[in-house]
Predict the 3D structure of the following.
Amino acid sequence: AQTVTQSQPEMSVQEAETVTLSCTYDTSESDYYLFWYKQPPSRQMILVIRQEAYKQQNATENRFSVNFQKAAKSFSLKISDSQLGDAAMYFCAYLGGTYKYIFGTGTRLKVLA
Amino acid sequence: DTAVSQTPKYLVTQMGNDKSIKCEQNLGHDTMYWYKQDSKKFLKIMFSYNNKELIINETVPNRFSPKSPDKAHLNLHINSLELGDSAVYFCASSYSFAGGADTQYFGPGTRLTVL
């Protein structure tokens, strides 16, 4: 069975600085997708970024980028120029052949002014 | 403009009661899901429907019964509520199931509190 691990329960970053959230996963599948979702205090789950495993190029969305290392089964999220509005829980998710999202336990990101 | 909506957003009820949570999506998606987020923020899938057909049914007590009257709606009915059912329940939808891994779009969640 696939598993997703987020080893950092909480991270802090100064406004305008860069922070990296880590995510590792375990799978025997070769085709799968990885996602980062953001959950602010409003509770809404917001898609941040998506990566297809067959693509070697790392996905990027504005200030958000990933470092996808397929062999190492690592999928970290880098947030550049952090803003106060980035403060939230961040969830890494895996989606493979079972079509079920498997979520990590989340990382709470605090942004310090 | 709301893509995935849920009602109610908050639900407080007594143990033993029966309650329903409704979900609607206007994205034209074929597949809808129910997730439970516990007090430790852990998210786990409960059910998934594709075009009104149940395709994922995780190990969930029989007291939970999803119903999909059409592909734009997926409701969750819970019988004989227990304290442990207190959680946030999220509805989500994606374009298709058979098409492979599709991004899921989440509703705002329903916080259920059982007293």
